[in-house]
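HUMAN: Forgive my ignorance: could you write out one protein's sequence and backbone structure tokens?

ASSISTANT:
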Amino acid sequence: MPSALPLGDPAPADGLLPASCITGAAERTFSVYVHIPFCAVRCGYCDFNTYTAHELGSGSSQESYAEAVSAEIAFGATVLETSGVPRREVSTVFFGGGTPTLLPAADLVRVLAEIRTQWDLAPDAEVTTEANPDSVTSESLQALADGGFTRVSIGMQSAVPHVLATLDRTHNPDRVGQAVAWAKEAGLAVSVDLIYGTPGESIEDWRTSVQTALSYDPDHISAYALIIEEGTRLFGQIRRGEVADIDDDDHADKYLIADELFAAAGFQWYEVSNWSKTEENRCLHNLAYWRGGDWWGAGPGAHSHVGGLRWWNVKHPAAYQQRIDAGTSPAAGRETPDADARYLEKAMLLTRIVDGMNIADLQPAGRTAIAGLIADGLVVPEAAFAKKVVLTLQGRLLADAVLRRLLDF
């Protein structure tokens, strides 16, 4: 089942935000995340807040979901205005899940129209939806493009049937290329998502997946190391010895292969797990997260952030629907991280992107650690002289270790 929500303080029913959220808001970007919690099947590695039709139960439905999440968007606009947060254009929108494209394209366009109405969508806004290759058609992708979507992120994961089977992915790998072609024909920018390190995936399997993804000529590629979350089906299979465990050295080897092949094809890394053809092809929505922008997260289990305040919605779609019908905030809890937590998060996020983190923003222990990180080949020397912490390829492989040294723990 999906992972648990964090602990925090109770969230008020009216959703109003404290005055601290107003400070500096005009200088921060504003984005919207829309969570679509529906999947045709649950993948064995997934612990996201998603539900199949069998798991959903009563009290909510896919058919009424666009109306419910649109109501939260209208509620959110009122909350921000009443709380005194200055009105800003929405610079990025991201529909994630789950499988957003299980909903009709008209429903997704309807939600986007509500965002445009309530918050003003910037003329050049990036609007992305995730999609499984078997959940789109040429007609649905064209309808999304006509409705204002600019980008689609396709869950490819692998090009090798036995790897997809281990992950419980049900799409035909040949369908990915067709979905990419349809998206391009509709005028959408295209990203493909890959996962490496699946039990039973050989080096050649992974090389095949990377080369196949590149053959589709996408604008952007994400490649994520498989993480086994407790409570997932794959976790249970590994614990029972039915499937081999993941291996850190295998992950490292496959990361190096991916980076080499991506670079040879003209892709540039800009975050540890993300590569793009050009700077313009980077995912601006994710960059807004990494750079500390504000965002409203709509939907069950969605998280939001405004001016340092974080909150998260109730998880189950039925509980969410009940709050929406009552006209109260769907938030389950909220928190304002203290200075130490904010510092850790800032270092964790900024050191993972190619722009790096200002050395001046590090605490003394972190500034002292820079020389050792350069000597160990984990930080680019030229970047350090330019007052930034920027990771080398080896530093990207050991990003968590770099962070621990910068934070002195």
In short: The longest helix spans residues 65-82. The two ends are 33 Å apart (CA to CA). The chain is about 40% helix and 20% strand. The CA atoms of residues 140 and 387 lie 47 Å apart.
